[in-house]
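User:
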Amino acid sequence: MGVGVMSPFEIDHVINGFAETAKGAVAVGFDGIEIHGAHGYLINQFLSSYSNKRTDGYGGSVENRFRFAREVIRAVKTVMPEDRLLTFRISNWGIADMEVSLFESAEEWQQIIKLLSAEPIDIISISTYDFKAEAFGTGKTMAGLTREVTDLPLMLCGKIYDRKTTIEALQDADIALSGKSILLNPDWVEDVCQGRELPVYSSDEAGIAYTEEPLP
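Assistant: Predicted structure:
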């Protein structure tokens, strides 16, 4: 498997950690759990052939690379009450290599989505830089490609910052997400409802929300 590759024992230990964390979230009253399979973090590293060079049952084919995600999803689902939502976040970009496509093609992306859709999740959450951007040279967006192969509700983020972009995003998704705008504007929901003109924020600008510096 190569130097530094997680052993089967370590994989089982991490999967158990996901389940125990979900238990804690349920215990304190959260209405849902989101499994983070995006942005080049651990689950995403297993999913992507760019990072996954394993030669065992967790590497190689799309089905094998999906195995870790499947086992995490099922472990988390077993500790959740039926009235709580389980969502899964996925992206084609990672923090460490932001210009790299983590999936090789639209076909591979859709294959992953089909596998996800067969699991006991309630929503797929798609993270993009820009929800309107063309994906894999297809002339379609990531949400559009995803919608073609799943009936699950979709959440979508990526430069959704005002009423106009929210409405546009909801053409292919069921829930629009706007992290930076909400971090930097406590009146964002009301501003969107009123159709006010709003700025689009960069990641660097949003960083202030995690400091002691007052918001502008």
